[in-house]
TrEMBL record:
SUPFAM superfamilies: TPR-like, Tricorn protease N-terminal domain
Keywords: TPR repeat
Gene3D superfamilies hit by this protein: Tetratricopeptide repeat domain, TolB, C-terminal domain, Tricorn protease N-terminal domain
A Pfam family: PD40
Protein family: Belongs to the TolB family.
Taxonomy, superkingdom: Bacteria
Protein name (record): Uncharacterized protein
């Protein structure tokens, strides 16, 4: 586990790679005051490249056995800003998987904020159910060995506490209810204990809660950061991650605190160890093969003997990484989460590295794939079908949609780009990116362009500096297709001038002249604005620029003479 001296915000995503327990602030308003003072919240996201990359994992020890996993098709679509399915664990009855994902709440038909909830689905990825569906942050679910209950962490009562509930979502009970924060609960195979994490004394330790007495002990109690507890099948020991020797390695410890043993010895970061059911092997995550820059999170799945020897890599994900391993009951397959090129999903794989299958619901990346490989009509039909099932589901972020649209434009598929963008614009008319991309698409198609994007205008009027940054970025990014013409910018500058915002008017007009250096109307407006500000030399300067382009312009000549006499 890694602690940092500031919160890691999920948006915008930064190129930060953190293995094991992560510092995480999913929703600002829901973070406890005590944790702000301690600089940390334990959860299971690391932020990689363009999105979040969770890396918490441990062994369920009651996992899917012989039931075959059906290969999924490309429908139905799962609608979400950024796919974030993680912390996935098989149930003891071989039929279900619990995991953490985010949802959105809506206000007046618009998405208001993201929210983390606990889900359960069939082991083939179908019949997804939101069990918690609560405005708090609910994360880190794990099965009881009887398969009838789940434990998870939630801040619904203020600080993060450990809760249990029935596998249907009923029977909610706060089993810690303390003034400190507890995370990452893991139910022991014998059903009597729950291991969890708590960031006391500004470090993370592993605790064990006895469910019969409701008393807990600090198992690790070390000055380093300890995380990722995972029970042995016999419930007499755990494997965990610790940075006590400099970098993150895998350790083993008896539940009475004795028998500490280091299992891995590398200069890489190891994490998320999980025992096989026969206790002969341990699966874990590592970047030890150096398959990519550490900050980009190229973390792979490995299996080693339970004494730490004979490790072998069983996955190769060149554009992302894996996390959250747990074993099938007969120890022939592993369940894990994977971040691949902007898409987070749940997968299974044979322990020899063969027969990898995705089993989580189809995501936005699949929408993009269907659009590019087939056509927009097909992908939109799948989208509409999904919306019928979940009217409140969130669609794309503007950035993702803009990227898809411009890729279609590059392929000369302008009509399809317009289809995608008009769909999104109808869903969220205030979003900036689809409107800007639509204007480009219309101009490429050779039809009358829609009016200047409302959102940019509103941004300039609401916050001039931010709006100008957006406008400049927009026009610099697409120099082949000026998204606004000089007349549109002049109209906006006229409005600012009438509002008495002459300084802002000058900035906008100077930007416009930079883009349209021969436009005499812009020069005239600049001269007029400087004259209102009493800057006669500048006013005369822009009129003289007009004369260089239009030497026979008598009106401008007369205005120059008037300014000379006034000055």
């Amino acid at each position: 586990m890694i602690l940092v001296d500031k919160m890691l915000w999920f948006l915008p995503p930064h190129k930060i790679r953190v293995i094991s327990i992560q510092i995480f602030s999913p929703i600002d308003s829901k973070i406890s005051t005590s944790l702000r003072k301690k600089w940390m919240i334990a959860s299971f996201l690391s932020l990689v490249a363009l999105g979040g990359y969770p890396q918490d994992s441990t062994n369920d020890n009651q996992a899917l056995g012989s039931k075959p996993v059906k290969k999924r098709t490309l429908s139905p679509l799962r609608l979400s800003n950024v796919p974030a399915q993680w912390s996935a664990y098989w149930s003891p009855d071989n039929n279900h998987i619990t995991y953490t994902d985010w949802t959105t709440t809506q206000e007046n038909g618009k998405n208001r904020e993201w929210n983390w909830d606990i889900y359960v689905m069939e082991s083939d990825g179908t019949d997804v159910v939101n069990l918690t569906n609560h405005p708090s942050v609910d994360i880190d679910s794990h099965w009881a060995p009887n398969g009838k209950q789940l434990c998870f962490s939630s801040n619904r009562d203020g600080d993060f506490d450990i809760y249990t509930m029935d596998s249907t979502g009923s029977g909610l009970t706060n089993i810690t209810n303390t003034s400190v924060d507890e995370f990452y609960p893991r139910w022991s195979p014998d059903g009597h204990k729950i291991a969890f994490l708590s960031p006391q004394n500004e470090k993370m330790d592993i605790y064990i809660l006895d469910l019969r007495t409701r008393s807990s002990i600090n198992l690790t109690n070390h000055s380093a950061n300890d995380s990722d507890p995972s029970w042995s099948p016999s419930s007499d020991k755990l494997v965990f991650t610790s940075d006590r020797d400099g970098n993150q390695e895998i350790y083993e410890i008896m539940i009475d605190g004795t028998g500490l043993k280091r299992l891995t010895y590398t200069t890489a970061d190891e994490s998320a160890a999980a025992y096989s059911h026969d206790e002969r092997y341990i699966a874990f995550n590592s970047d030890r093969d150096g398959l990519g820059p550490k900050r980009y999170g190229y973390v792979q799945n490995y299996v080693m003997k339970s004494d730490g020897t004979e490790s072998k890599r069983i996955s190769l994900v060149p554009t992302g990484g894996n996390a959250q391993l747990n074993w099938s009951r007969n120890d022939d397959r592993l369940l894990f989460s994977s971040w691949r090129g902007g898409d987070r999903g749940i997968y299974t794989i044979n322990v020899d590295g063969t027969n990898e299958q995705r089993i989580s619901p189809t995501t936005i990346c699949d929408f993009m794939q269907i659009t590019l490989e087939q056509d927009a009509t097909t992908s939109i039909a799948l989208y509409n079908k999904a919306r019928l099932k979940d009217p409140n589901a969130l669609f794309f972020t503007g950035g993702i949609l803009e990227r898809l649209a411009f890729e279609l434009m590059d392929k000369k598929r302008i009509d399809e780009a317009i289809q995608i963008l008009e769909l999104y614009q109808a869903e969220d008319p205030d979003s900036e990116s689809p409107q800007n991309a639509l204007l480009v698409a219309y101009k490429l198609k050779g039809v009358d362009a829609p009016p200047y994007p409302k959102e940019i205008v509103n941004m300039i009027l609401r916050n001039f500096n931010e709006g100008m940054v957006s406008l400049r970025t927009l026009m610099d990014r697409y120099p082949k297709w000026y998204l606004v013409n000089a007349n549109e910018l002049l109209e906006l500058s006229k409005f600012l001038s009438e509002e008495g915002k002459l300084g802002n008017t000058l900035i906008l007009l100077e930007f416009t002249l930079e883009k349209y250096p021969e436009n005499t109307k812009v020069m005239d407006a600049l001269s007029d604005t400087h004259q209102k500000l009493g800057n006669w030399p500048k006013a005369r300067y822009y009129l003289e620029k007009i004369l260089k382009i239009e030497p026979e312009n008598k009106k401008v000549t007369q205005r120059i003479e008037v300014l000379k006499s006034t000055n």
